[in-house]
Amino acid sequence: MTMAWTTIDEYLATLPDDKRAALERLRAQIRAAAPDATETIAYGIPGFRIDGRYLLGFGATKDDCSFYTGGEPRTVHADELVGYRLSKGTIGFKPDKPIPDELVTRIVRERVAERRPRDR
User: Fold this and answer.
1) Is the N or C terminus of the chain more exposed, i.e. has fewer CB atoms within 10 Å?
2) Cα of 17 vs its chain's centroid, Å
3) What is the pTM of this model?
4) Are 95 and 19 in contact (CB under 8 A)?
């Protein structure tokens, strides 16, 4: 059965408490680092858009949580992401071992810079 969430809150309401708390924290960090971004459900998962373009997303899997950043942040910050599950465009983390706040902020700001023209 495929769920048709229309808001991030609807998505989060379906998760176990530990994953919901971890993703609510990540959501707040993204909002703080990219206040102009708008929330969306894209590709069936919670995400953010900036200037109409997909920025990044997050979600829960059976075993952990995922931060969908695209490939560049995962590569650039590989040394800081030792111990996290890394796959193409994704940083996987356990709810009790979130990605450090400062690193999330840097990744979000880097993604915003990639998505926005420099001459704005």
Assistant:
1) N
2) 18
3) 0.91
4) yes
CATH fold for domain 8-110:
Aspartate Aminotransferase, domain 1 (3.90.1150)
- Tokens 């680092």, residue located: 33
Q: Residue 36 — left, alpha, or beta (φ > 0 → left; ψ -120 to 50 → alpha)?
A: alpha
**Could you tell me the CA-to-CA distances from 9 to 13, 15, 18, 40, 72 in Å, in that order?**
6, 10, 15, 11, 28
Give the integer Cα–Cα distance in Å for 45 and 61: 11
CB burial readout 97-119, b (16+ within 10 A) else e:
ebbeeebbebbbebbbeebeeee
Residues 26, 100: contact at Cβ < 8 Å?
A: no
Residue owning tokens 């969430």: 5
Average pLDDT of the residues of the chain: 91
| Chain mean position to CA 15 | 16
Q: Where are the domains of the chain?
A: 8-110
Token output for 68? 């969908």
